[in-house]
TrEMBL record:
TauD/TfdA-like domain residues: 19-279
Protein name in UniProt: Putative dioxygenase
Cofactor: Fe(2+)
Keywords: Dioxygenase, Iron, Metal-binding, Oxidoreductase
GO molecular function: 2-oxoglutarate-dependent dioxygenase activity; metal ion binding
Classification via SUPFAM superfamilies: Clavaminate synthase-like
Family per similarity comment: Belongs to the TfdA dioxygenase family.
Keyword Cell division attached: no
Length: 309
């Protein structure tokens, strides 16, 4: 695959839409595509290729409804339900409301739902209610982070496995709604062992597969685990590896959940903020030696995600 650093800032695809890079190491805006219409297979394929290259794609001013977002996300694979433990939008079992008024503020770096064995392949977010300031989404390129590691740290990371859990070390909830959301989030316990370095199943890239749900390193104590995870995470969140999406209502973002992390700064006070999330089912992560992730606690999450061989 072509190194993104060698690509021109703006290119036109064979099917006629434009891809404009918006970050030095991650992110592109897609111009000239109306997601509310029927997308031809060739167009979907080129969007998929752009996603593999740029990791996160921004589609401005789309103004999809729930049905339109579901239809778009389903072009990239079978969909999950909204979440393993948290309720969906009423009447829409595959849509998760990311609603600040309900205490949902994702201001922890994470990759979606890594506490199950088959985390999502990709996530779509749709801006519905956006605060007049703040409320951005940050998306980080974990493959670039892996490449930034000094060789001794890369060699160490290649051999490590981490335990991911939904019962991670939450901060004290700031409201009754936040406390209730946390209670629902941990209502069913999950612990899964994933490789610290995941090999992307389509590109073969290696990326740091950690984030907020990764709580310990297999074979190490809590102190050593925290220190190592902090060191690796510091490479993921370097500013040069991050795209900042400033939302306007109607925007849609598609990102590759297998090789990114994301974070939503809690910087908009009591203002409303509402996004809808739809995720595409993924496969079982594989480490550098081909070994697959395995479950320590919890069921197979078949109520949430289709089993992918």
């Amino acid at each position: 695959m072509t190194d993104p650093q060698e690509r021109t800032p703006h290119m036109t695809t064979s099917t006629g839409f434009d891809v404009r890079r918006i970050g030095g190491r991650i992110g592109a805006e897609i111009l000239g595509v109306d997601l509310s219409g029927d997308l031809e297979p060739a167009l979907v394929s080129e969007i998929g290729s752009a996603l593999l290259e740029h990791k996160a794609l921004l589609f401005r001013d789309q103004h999809l409804d729930d049905a339109g977002q579901l239809r778009f996300a389903s072009l990239f694979g079978e969909l999950t339900t909204a979440h393993p433990t948290v309720p969906s939008v009423e009447g829409q079992p595959r849509i998760l409301p990311v609603d600040a008024d309900e205490g949902i503020r994702s201001n922890v770096w994470h990759t979606d739902v890594t506490f199950v064995r088959t985390p999502p392949k990709a996530s779509t977010l749709r801006g519905i209610v956006v605060p007049p300031y703040g409320g951005n989404t940050l998306i980080a390129n974990s493959a670039a982070a892996y490449r930034d590691l000094p060789e001794p740290l890369r060699e160490l990371a290649d051999r490590l496995w981490a335990v991911h859990t939904n019962a991670y070390d939450y901060a004290a909830p700031k409201s009754e709604k936040a406390a209730e959301y946390r209670k629902r989030f941990v209502s069913r316990a999950y612990r899964t062992v994933h490789p610290v370095v995941r090999v992307h199943p389509e590109t073969g890239e290696r990326g740091l597969f950690i984030g907020g749900f990764a709580q310990s390193i297999v074979g190490l104590g809590s102190s050593e685990s925290r220190d190592l995870l902090r060191i690796f995470q510091s490479y993921v969140t370097r500013p040069e590896n991050i795209l900042r999406v400033a939302w306007t209502p109607g925007d849609v973002v598609l990102f590759d959940n297998r090789i990114t992390q994301h974070y939503a700064p809690d910087d908009y006070g009591d203002l409303p903020r509402l996004l809808h999330r739809v995720t595409v089912a993924g496969d079982v992560p594989a480490g550098v030696d081909g070994t697959l992730s395995h479950v320590l606690e919890g069921d197979d999450a078949s109520h949430y995600t289709p089993a992918v061989a």
